[in-house]
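Task: complex structure prediction.
Instruction: return structure tokens for all chains below.
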Amino acid sequence: MKCSFCKSKIENGRGKILVKNDGKIIYFCSSKCEKNMIKLGRNPRNVKWIKKQKK
Ligand SMILES: [Zn+2]
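Output:
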């Protein structure tokens, strides 16, 4: 599974899972990502510390 914010891989047993009111499930690799998305409402594109993923 992948972090819904920074798109990095999350290993089993790690990270956080959040279920929204509308039934969407969001995964976070860290509380840092959770904070940024939930509290700050940031768009991942605008966050400098996220490295662009290579395909
Ligand atoms: Zn993340």
